[in-house]
Amino acid sequence: MKNIFWIFLLLFCVLSQAQTILLDTDYPAVSALKKVADGGSLTQEQKAPTSDSITVASIEELRLAGQMSGRVINMLPGEYVVKDHMPDDPKTIFHFSGSNNEFNFNDVRIIIPTSVLRNMGPGSTHEFATYRIDGSNLIFNGGHFENTGEDRPYKSLAEFEVHGNNISFFGCEIIIRGSSPYGYGDMYGKGSGSAVALYKHSAMSILGDNVWVDGCMFKVFAFGHGIHIHGAQNTVIRNVNMEGALRLTDEIYEETSGPAFDHDFKRMYPDWYEGSDIPKGEMLSLTEDGIRAYLDGTDVNGVSRRTGKITVENCVVDKMRGGITLTISSDVATVTDCVVTRCDHGYSVPSNSVVRNCKVDAAFGPILSIPYSNKKNADIELELISAESVMGTHSFMEISGSNHKIKITATEDMSMYTMPMKIGYVGYRYNETNSTESELQSKHNASAIQLINETSVPVELTKYSSGCTVTSPIAEVVDKGTDNVVQN
Fold it and tell me: What residues contact 136, with CB distance under 8 A and at least 6 apart?
């Protein structure tokens, strides 16, 4: 009996100590959470770094922990369904304003029904975010973050708006749903002046410096970008898998309501296609670009600056409008070991950038597009891969600018691709019906470009090309330009 007594006494002490660790309000982090839950607010001391490790087990506790600093925050495994926006902020679902934190979401699923996004507001476009991150020095480990439903958001938004500096995401899964219109790509607009009201929904907007996205999976089932970069410096995107959605254009003609039906099945965007029939027999991307950079943006203090260096490594982009589309970024980009498939266009990079050991198909659009004649000195090597099907009337490659070095290789038969690589061509945007000859020369201009084509895909040097050198031992080269050199 004595032994049994001591065993029970020991067990009681252990359980009491465990309960004290989890619930003792003298523990600083738990005390702070309880204070706010009881209607108080965090003090500056409670927000300051203390290196406490805490466990949260509800949406409310996670929201409160996001305001703290200097913590390791572990969320208990399980599924959590969000029911409303932040109590004091109708434009935000979660706000991570604290700094120097590590969030661990291993085996955690956070579900946000699109009806919650629809019921946000009031507010204006660009004021909304699902996960608003403006603290600094934050790490997000793991976690499954998903929208369910098909409601459009109150206003266009990014699921993750990353405005803080030194933010890292490791092994996160992000699934985006809910936008309007959806199912038509950008044929009814993508910004101001659109033919219908837009409620876009992207996965991640990066505005802060030194943001690192590594080992994450994105599925974008809404009209919006995957990752888009605005004014950020030193962005690194590694080991990311980005998936969008496609639709055969023929299916649109079966609709009996919606924007296509309302516009008599005419495209209204871009303006050079406005009023033309939706083409049949083509594959349409329902999203925007996979990894996209813009010219500039504002930092966390509202200061405008140009977008800085971008590194993209070992990423896969599939079924997005554009694959890796960085061409209007202000600084250089380095893209290595990536694969782009089934996109409207594959790669596009700014001046002085490097692309190495990357693969791409031309199933539904050009493998490479440099659509601005002021771009120069890009150094690009791409391996062409086969596609299950090839649809559309697109060019194989569209290049303008100067002094680019481009090498296209293949390790298998590419006879499925018959459309030409075009040098001195930026697409149908500038054509004889909407531009003067001098404008066409300015926009399509390509000079001193070196192309090595080791595939069977033909090459066309347009009349807007000059001083270019093409080496193509297998495929035909048609030269309509000036002072070009063609080598077999």
Answer: 99, 100, 164, 165, 166, 167, 208, 300
Tokens of 203: 């996965």
Mean pLDDT, the chain, rounded, equals: 91
What is the C-alpha separation between 351 and 329, in angstroms, rounded?
9
Angstrom distance (rounded) from CA 204 to CA 152? 17
Beta-strand pair 339-341/316-318: parallel
Whole-angstrom Cα distance, residue 171 to residue 1? 53
Q: What is the pLDDT of residue 27?
A: 36
Q: How far apart are CA 353 and CA 396, in angstroms?
A: 21
- Give per-residue pLDDT as tens, 432-471: 989 999 999 999 999 999 999 999 999 999 999 999 999 9
SS3 414: coil
DSSP category for residue 279 = P
Segment (H or E) for 22:
helix 2-23
Estimate to the nearest angstrom the gap between the alpha carbon of 411 and the chain centroid: 30
Q: Determine whether 382 is exposed, middle or buried from the number of CB atoms within 10 Å of its CB (0-12, 13-18, 19+).
A: buried
C-alpha span between 229 and 297 (Å, rounded): 8
Q: Is 203 left (phi over 0), alpha (psi -120 to 50) or beta?
A: alpha
Residue 456 and residue 410: Cα distance in Å, rounded?
9
Q: What angle do CA 229, 232, 234 make, to 5 degrees?
A: 105
Mean pLDDT of 155-177: 98
Cis ω for the linkage preceding 87 (within 30 of 0) = no
φ, ψ (nearest 5 deg) of residue 299: -80, -175
Distance CA 237, CA 218 (A): 12
| Tokens describing residue 78 | 């399980």
Sign of torsion, CA 84 89 91 97?
A: negative
DSSP labels, 447-482: ES-EEEE-SS--EEE-TTEES-EEE-SSS-EEE-SB
The helix or strand, by DSSP H or E, that contains position 116, with its residue range, turns out to be helix 114-118
Whole-number pLDDT of residue 48: 43
Question: At 247, which helix (H) or strand (E)?
Answer: strand 246-248
Joined tokens for residue 99: 């700094």
**Average of per-residue pLDDT across 79-85:** 98
Extended beta strands in 286-388, E state? 291-293, 296-298, 304-306, 310-313, 316-318, 322-325, 333-336, 339-341, 345-348, 354-360, 368-370, 379-384
DSSP classification of residue 315 = -
> Cis ω on the peptide bond leading into residue 458 (within 30° of 0)?
no
Helix (H, G, I), strand (E, B) or coil at 2: helix
Cβ atoms of 368 and 396 closer than 8 Å: no
